[in-house]
Design a protein that fits this description.
Elements: H1 3-14, H2 19-26, H3 34-51, H4 61-81, E1 88-89, E2 93-95, H5 106-116, E3 123-124, E4 129-130, H6 135-145, E5 149-153, H7 156-168, E6 172-176, E7 182-184, E8 187-188, H8 189-196, E9 199-203, H9 211-217, E10 222-228, H10 244-253, E11 257-263, H11 281-287, E12 291-295, E13 306-310, H12 312-320, H13 323-327, H14 331-341, H15 347-350, H16 354-360, H17 363-376, E14 383-395, E15 403-413, H18 418-426, E16 432-433, E17 435-437, E18 440-444, H19 453-461
Parallel strand pairs: 1-16, 2-14, 6-9, 6-10, 10-11, 11-12
Antiparallel strand pairs: 3-4, 5-13, 7-8, 12-13, 14-15, 15-18, 17-18
Helix pairs in contact: 2-3, 3-4, 5-14, 6-14, 7-8
The structure holds pyridoxal-5'-phosphate.
Pyridoxal-5'-phosphate binds next to helix 7 and strand 11.
Length: 463
Amino acid sequence: MQPGEKRSANALLRLLPSVDEMLQTRAAADGLGRRQITSLVRLAINDIRGLAATLDPKTSREEIRDLIDAALAAYIDSARRSALTQVVNATGVIIHTNLGRAPLSAEASAAMRGAARYCSLEYDIQAGTRGLRSPFVEHLICDLTGAEASLVVNNCAAAAFLVLKALADRSEVIVSRGQLIEIGGDFRIPDILAQSGAIMCEVGTTNRTTLGDFEEAISDSSSLILRVHPSNFRVIGFTAQPSLVELSTLARSRGLILYENIGGGSLIDLEPLGISDEPRVQDSLTAGVDIITFSGDKLLGGPQCGIIAGRSDVIARLRKHPLMRALRVDKTIAAALEATLIPYTNEREMSEVPVLKMLLMSYAEIKERAEKLVERFDKRSPVRLAIIDGMSVVGGGAAPGAELRTSLISVTHRQYTSSEIETKLRTFDTPVIARIDDDRVLLDLRTVAVEDEAILTAALNSI
Ligand SMILES: *Cc1c(COP(=O)(O)O)cnc(C)c1O
């Protein structure tokens, strides 16, 4: 660098505003706290300081401020985007693990808001004294599943851990080799068994396990037979597993507990929708399972929680375990679960639970919504919309093979590529998450609430 240039870079540095000066114009930036804005202002000023040597020496004070302002706006934008925010799920994956699994009903959201303040979490309003924690939600679970007793914890992983720790610590748990599975997110059945202190006793083979395999494995140190629903994959061909009734008869005759981790947690028969591998919770209990665990935010369609249901003497042991205190759910979750379960008590209202509504939505209904949206869309727009047939999926590691017939909106643009269109939708004010298939951007209205269609149209118009 020439000495002259160095002098002008130094001269430019003297024109840099202070953090305080910048803050005066940006004090109340869009939903971020003052401390965060201050550190972003510092970053933006530093960026421009680093550029000083490359700037035209005649750059004015105002132009330097504008440069800092632009850098700051980009920092603020990216800080806001990393915050938890509402998105429109147009992927057609109903229980989308990355997008918060089950969306809650309006009633469940309202119940959460109500409970967020003071609420009757452990208070008996009739008696005016301390009461049990969420007895009504436990009562609802029993009512709907036929269980004698129930308990709610943080998620299904916590439920499985509590069951194994409380009932099988330092004793043998008998499990089929075909069910030593990984659920995803590093949750593996052998690991959870090891963490709980249980001694894993594997029987049978990957594809076939018989009742005899279980029978032979039972010893004086066995406490529990574990059955895991292989939620996220399918074994087809030469396979065998004893039925729950057979396992239950065996467990009873040998004084063992039969525990099923069913995962998905459907309370309705999904067979008519072509979903054949998601058994109902109540069917397992009827078959003689002593204790069952499932997720609240998969097929049940509620908030993130794990539900444990079954024999009252077994539930009582879990309730008394010291881990229970560490795993219990928050008041807002208890409220949302309660509000999700209430519609299940009434056949007609049940389909208002968003997950069920999306599962049950017919091809014809989705097609009609898609056609209306395309018809209303501005014909002069460079965005081209077309309707094609396709499939929605259940997601959430449930019903792996099942696909639901749907009608998709395919989006193309006069000048942008599919991946550019997808990015523009994703970075809209309310992000719209689409899928790209065969180099086409596809939108599935099955997972878009009717009230969110306006956001979708606005996002398309913004491309
Ligand atoms: C999904 C699932 C889990 C984990 O449930 P979370 O609620 O995510 O903790 C555990 N077991 C089975 C069989 C599952 O399908």
